Amino acid sequence: MGIAAKELSLYVIRPTLAYLGQNNPNAETLLLGIAASQSNLGAALHDRRGHGLYCIREPRHAALWDNYLAQTPDLASLVRGLASQHAFLGNPHLELTVNLRYATAIAWLLIEQLHVSIPAADDIQGMARVWRQAFEPQGRLRDFANAWRSCVTPLNQVA
Known about the structure:
Elements: H1 5-19, H2 25-39, E1 46-47, E2 50-51, H3 58-67, H4 73-80, H5 87-90, H6 95-98, H7 100-112, H8 124-134, H9 141-156
Antiparallel strand pairs: 1-2
Helix pairs in contact: 1-2, 1-7, 2-9, 8-9
């Protein structure tokens, strides 16, 4: 069992996006859907597909730092501020597994660097297309939609 969708949004995704200057409910919903499809909202934080809530692969993580964040030092400093002071230097990829806010920032930046339009919160197919482009190029849109229905929809319907 993973993290409750509402709590993940409220305590991790929303504050991380706000910290990055991205107060966008659609981005929040997109990241929640990605976490659902990548790790079943944290039920599996480390597997062959990558690290953490968003299953980010080490080469993608390194490339984001080398090719995107290196070009934007203020943003890099902001993101680095989310990482553990000493652990990041020893094993930066471990931060993707143990630090939910850092992992969320990196996941958001993987999307942001693509310069894609963020779909509306009720556009599951649109979110699935962004997920596939940013995280799973071989992924099936229906897999994202199924993860959304099983992980996010029931939790949002609790009275």
